[in-house]
Amino acid sequence: MKIPEHLALSYLLGQLGPQETYGPAGTVLVMAAGMLPDLDGVSILGGWQCHLKYHRKIGHGLPVTLFGPLMLALCWASQLEGWSWLGLWAWLQASLLLHLTVDLLFHRWPVQLLWPLSKWGVGLGLIGWHDLVPTVLLYVAAGVALVWSAAACWTAAGALVLLALYVAWRARRPGPLGGWLGWLTRGWAVGSPRLCRWLVGDFIT
Hints:
This protein has 205 residues and is mainly alpha-helical. The protein has one domain (3-199). The protein has helices at 3-14, 18-22, 24-35, 48-54, 62-76, 85-106, 132-147, 152-172, 179-185, 194-199. It is globular.
């Protein structure tokens, strides 16, 4: 899943409870937690080979998973009463785990969940890199939730359910699709202007 999609996904998760309980700060923290794994994406500054070596490894491994959300929650604990920060921690942990889940489901680039204890990685590759269905679904839902706050919770819940159903359907229908579905899931990117790919978060191809 690409960075803007992760941001939209985390924003939608924030509408299911953190926004109402902790205010806008809750949503921001959920989004921050949801982006923690991709901190290893800065490895691209060292070149493509450096990126291949460290991305989906350092940020997606055990240290960040176990301690990243906890540190974020503790940083905000002084703004909350008593032990209520534990609830926030649970949401932040859920946001990070959601990031890891979609990463291992979507693409074939292995996610090293147990790093540094193990180099074992998993990437199921159920969703193609250029598949517009999750992109459009997440962008539209996030936009609706942002503009229509009264319906934000239901919009977010509906979008997450639809995303899960789409991933499950693609698991049952692996491989390239034909016709307009083929265009929507990969064909549109062939020969498209780079700006179009940038708009959907593809800053690589």
